[in-house]
UniProtKB/TrEMBL annotation:
Alphabetical list of InterPro entries matching this protein: AKR, K_chnl_volt-dep_bsu_KCNAB-rel, NAD(P)_OxRdtase_dom_sf, NADP_OxRdtase_dom
Signal sequence annotation: none
One of the Pfam families matching this protein, by short name: Aldo_ket_red
Family the entry assigns: Belongs to the shaker potassium channel beta subunit family.
Domain NADP-dependent oxidoreductase: 15-314
Protein's name according to its UniProt entry: Aldo/keto reductase family protein
Organism placement in taxonomy: Bacteria, Bacillati, Actinomycetota, Actinomycetes, Micrococcales
UniProt keyword annotation of Protease present: no
CDD domains in alphabetical order: Aldo_ket_red_shaker-like
Amino acid sequence: MQFRYLGNSGFKISEITYGNWLTHGSQVENDTATACVRAALDAGITTFDTADVYANTVAESVLGEALKGERRPSLEIFTKVFGPTGPKGHNDVGLSRKHIMESIDGSLQRLQTDYVDLYQAHRFDFETPLEETMQAFADVVRQGKALYIGVSEWTADQLRAGHALAKELGFQLISNQPEYSALWRVIEEEVVPASKELGISQIVWSPVAQGVLSGKYKPGAPLPEGSRATDEKGGAGAVKRWLTDDVLTRVQELTPIAQELSLTSAQLAVAWVLQNDNVAAAIIGASRPEQVQENVKASGVTIPDELLGRIDEVLGGAVERDPSRTHERSPKTREA
């Protein structure tokens, strides 16, 4: 396992990070979830990412139980705040001071830890003054409940504004967590250059494009049983945008490129995002321990420029690059 610094800080994380967005408390049983976490630890992963909104707080509880007994200083535990939780009342969502201060305490209790290494604004809150949000984060850091602060799916302008306030308030904004894959490159034009300027790293989610870049979905073929695309609890909705014959045909053409590097297509996809020097980590999820064991093999891989060019040629017009798509990710109202 390779490790990278997160933003302009002295804080290192495993470049393959384990995340439990669509799995823990939802797609897989708790014993399987625990087995996946054990497989991650055995493979050298030390960084774990979750959020209070995942399975309406249950995912945090499952992760906390799975990590119970591990040496806390040897782990990096991340969680997030924004989405509606609990009974989803009018203050159970967003980045108000009230929601942040109550949410961090709930997350720590569920994760069975005194602090999280990184506390992240899961989306940008258009209805709360940014000054209020960043002051609350500053207080969370000063109380020792979080060591660092990050965000998720913020635009370049939002990152600049948040970073300036964090600096004024005496804490570090060191990370952004966007979707990023060989098929979804919307951060490259604006977010990545701004982040490099500010000393912010990307911790990217869905590097395998919800499993599509693994090559398991074949054009014109039935969806594989038990795959994310057949999961009506949330997985199917997330993956359906990629299930076109054009995309799936192009993805099949990546197989020979992966084979040249002695990688699977999924490993190639994870290794591809790690070639971006602004990416500190790729988040992988798993519904089986074997998936963790396979995907960690992407750590430390270097893809030659010639093969990166071939990947670009193969995927061609199937790649989404429009930077405005980041702005669409944050809801403009925060109704629970």
